[in-house]
Design brief:
Elements: H1 7-19, E1 23-25, E2 37-39, H2 41-59, E3 65-67, H3 77-81, H4 84-87, E4 89-94, E5 101-103, H5 104-130, H6 136-142, H7 144-165, H8 169-178, E6 195-198, E7 202-205, E8 213-216, H9 222-226, H10 229-235, E9 242-251, E10 266-276, H11 281-297, E11 306-310, E12 320-328, E13 331-340, H12 344-353, E14 359-361, E15 366-368, E16 371-378, H13 379-390, E17 391-395, E18 401-405, E19 416-420, H14 427-438, E20 444-446, H15 452-462, E21 466-470, H16 472-477, E22 479-484, E23 490-494, H17 495-506, H18 508-514
Parallel strand pairs: 3-9, 19-20, 19-21
Antiparallel strand pairs: 1-2, 4-5, 4-6, 7-8, 9-10, 10-16, 11-12, 12-13, 13-16, 14-15, 17-18, 21-22, 22-23
Helix pairs in contact: 2-13, 5-7, 5-8, 6-7, 7-8
The chain binds adenosine-5'-triphosphate (ATP).
Adenosine-5'-triphosphate (ATP) binds near residues 252, 267 and 378.
Length: about 525
């Protein structure tokens, strides 16, 4: 399994997600179902807000992108045309001693990442030794030990790519043995042969066994967009270039699913297919790389959490591909894929369906099959990225500790907690009046239990960006105290201004406006 560079943080993420109603194991009372998760009362809100942020950024900010909602079930020929029936496989390998199953390619990739980390450790050590004049890049290019590690980080993945391309599974096993890769859990090197395993879930449509049709649960949402290309283009009078966006569930029978919501068997994708004129796709690839990174960066997570990983091995249909990787608690891993898919998908659907899927260009008076740029991000992975980054333990000036979930404000499940200082003297009534006014534009929560300090801590851990306290002075000055989750500063705000005060800070518009900056 991936090396854990912060196991403790990951454990905290798991327990906090459960304790505060973000993520539960599916069917937990029956001991759960492996790699399937449920989102609780807070998780469902956070997930909905992330989806909304993506959806609005795509379909509201861009005149040339529209959204659809295709069915999960699709005609089975779809998956022949897309290549999933024949080639949506992962190479799996079992350890004979531990009986654990792994993805052979992931074992090799994790090995390489370890070598890269060793190289970076050497660079860090040298940086400390040499001080300010140190040139890290030069060191990487000249120091023998570092060069050795970097070579060991690069060569195996390149060899792996060639072996998989040639479908040489015996070669993949030989590579694992040559690198002396051991079972990460037990250290055993006693491996089975490598086999291919199709990741699609099959099911049946129809009442009786002999008339039933074999179907698949969709393993990606993209194909629902491709098969609707002409419907949308014609009914929306769309002109090239234009995009179709979609969010929805996808299903994959993942071989290894041990990283919480990072790799699930049922998950949600947010995909956008952008149709362009052939020959312009690499320009658009560059533009979409920048646009997607700007979307991420607007959330305020540090730039050092992200990196692009350009693909060494391009899928047969792609002429450029990159991943946006995020620094998860278990290291840098794929969060989003950006692919230049050429005309592969539309052409394949033309061939299998016998229907033309072309754009008629009035300027040149000719038809062509557009090329496609795809951006594809896992909603659950985005959730994990945001949640794990937000979860922090802080030591305060007075030496006390607090756990705070610094979620991007616009994505927080509850925007403000409304807290009467005491359960009497008319304070709860004022609190309820405030809720009545705020509830039309944001989700707020009433809480009167425990001392105010404990309530603040509870809301900090819950990720609520603002606490609004109603005290005895409120009756005189018609104002409340608003406490900021991150800075813990407090401000007196007139009740009549409260709605605007909060909206200016928590609305999705504020977040969306940060994208272009
Ligand atoms: P990986 O290499 O991690 O298996 P992938 O390259 O197969 O991912 P894509 O087919 O490009 O992934 O899917 C697009 C996005 O969907 C990924 O970037 C990821 O965020 C998300 N995704 C894919 N598989 C899963 C899964 N099993 N659970 C959660 N999210 C997933």
């Amino acid at each position: 399994m991936a090396q854990t560079n912060d196991t403790d943080q990951f454990k905290k993420v798991l327990s906090h997600a459960k304790e505060y109603g973000y993520v539960f194991q599916s069917s937990e009372i029956y001991d759960g179902l492996q790699a399937v998760y449920d989102y609780g009362q807070n998780g469902a809100e956070l997930k909905k807000n992330i989806r909304e942020y993506w959806w609005q950024a795509m379909t509201q900010l861009n005149q040339d992108i529209v959204g659809i909602d295709a069915a999960i079930f699709m005609h089975p020929t779809t998956w022949k045309a897309s290549g999933h029936v024949d080639a949506f496989n992962d190479p799996l390998i079992d350890n004979k001693d531990s009986k654990k199953r792994y993805r052979a390619d992931v074992l090799v990739e994790d090995y390489c990442e370890k070598q890269r980390l060793k190289a970076e450790k050497e660079v860090e050590k040298a940086a400390k030794r040499f001080g300010e004049s140190f040139d890290a890049d030069m060191y990487r290019q000249t120091n023998e030990r570092v060069m050795g590690y970097l070579k060991a980080a690069k060569e195996p993945v390149e060899r792996l790519a060639r072996l998989l391309e040639a479908e040489d599974l015996a070669g993949v096993k030989a590579l694992i043995e040559e690198l002396e890769i051991a079972d990460p859990d037990t250290g055993s090197k006693n491996w089975t042969d490598v086999r291919q395993f199709n990741l699609m879930f099959g099911t049946k449509l129809g009442a009786s066994a002999d008339t039933a049709t074999d179907l698949y649960l969709r393993p990606e949402t993209a194909q629902g967009i491709f098969v609707n290309f002409l419907n949308v283009q014609k009914s929306g009078r769309m002109k090239i270039p234009f995009g179709i966006a979609q969010t929805g569930k996808a299903f994959r029978n993942e071989i290894v699913a041990r990283q919480f919501i990072f790799r699930q068997r049922e998950f949600e994708q947010m995909e956008m297919q952008y149709f362009v004129k052939p020959g312009t796709e690499l320009e658009w690839f560059k533009i979409w790389k920048e646009r997607r990174m700007a979307w991420h960066r607007a959330l305020g997570m540090d730039a050092s959490n992200y990196r692009f990983h350009d693909h060494e091995k391009l899928a047969h249909y792609a002429n450029a591909a990159t991943d946006i990787e995020f620094n998860f608690p278990f290291g840098f891993k794929e969060l989003e894929g950006i692919h230049s898919r050429t005309d592969f998908d539309l052409k394949a659907h033309e061939e299998y369906s016998g229907k033309k899927l072309q754009f008629f260009d009035h300027e040149t008076n000719s038809s062509y099959v557009p090329y496609v740029l795809e951006t594809s991000i896992g909603l659950d992975r985005m959730f994990l990225a945001i949640f794990s980054n937000a979860l922090q333990d802080e030591t305060l000036e007075d030496g006390s500790e607090r756990t705070v979930l610094k979620l991007p404000v616009a994505l927080a499940p509850v925007k403000a907690a409304i807290l009467p200082l005491l359960k009497k003297d008319g304070l709860p009534e004022i609190a309820n009046e405030i809720i009545e006014e705020l509830k039309w534009s944001m989700k707020v929560q009433y809480d009167e239990k425990d001392a105010i300090g404990r309530r603040y801590r509870r809301q900090d851990a819950n990720g609520t960006p603002f606490c609004v306290t109603i005290d005895h002075d409120t009756k005189e000055d018609h104002a409340v105290t608003v406490r900021d989750r991150d800075t813990m500063t407090q401000e007196r705000v007139a009740i009549k201004d409260l709605k605007n005060y909060l909206e200016e800070r928590v609305s999705m518009t504020v977040l969306l406006k940060k994208i272009s900056k």
